[in-house]
Amino acid sequence: MAKLGSLTAAFLCVLASLGNVAALPTADNAVEVIPGPGLPSLVSLGLTSADLFKKVPEINSTVAPQLSKRFDDFCQNTNLVNRDNAIACYNYLNALGTTACGVDTNIDFCVAGDAHIGGSNIAGGHASSYCRDVATGALWIINNCNINNRVEGAAAAYGNGNLIVSIEPWSA
Fold it and tell me: pLDDT for 29-39, tens place per residue?
């Protein structure tokens, strides 16, 4: 058997490993990101669903510390959803910045594929936070509840222990 040069062997290793890399979504194959009722459309923000899959949030495990004794953030592992779909919704909500994300009872903030980021109010009445703060609650779940790139859980919106953010499966 002929010996391969080290450069050729390295090239073949790289090619073999590329078969295991998942492609980033493109305009043709991106999961559709659907904003919740009353929230701005992707078009109005100058975004596409594919754009939201390209941006990966900074990983910081302390991004959303316990905010209040009213709610303890937690992970679940019974109906996990695709982490990349959850990240796309995180990116959408984060892009809304200081737009108000409010809830009276339960609301859908965003849906992408199997992932749903929703909100609820544990105090009754109306609760509202900046959408970027709702995104920060979702990021806690994405970072802390990751099992083989699948996530599920609930966390308080950053700065508002009454507005609870959840990532869970979506069913139409």
Answer: 568 999 999 99
Q: What's the CA dihedral at 28, 139, 77, 85 to 10 degrees? A: -10
- Residue 121 pairs with which residues in a beta bridge? 163
The CA R_g of the chain, rounded to the nearest whole Å, is 19
Vertex 110 angle, CA 58 and 138, to 5°:
35
Pairing of strands 153-157, 160-169: antiparallel
pLDDT, the chain, mean? 79
If phi > 0 it is left, if psi is from -120 to 50 it is alpha, else beta; for residue 83 that is: alpha
Give me the residue spans of the domains in the chain. 27-169
First to last CA, the chain: 58
Q: Is 53 helix (H, G, I), strand (E, B) or coil?
A: helix
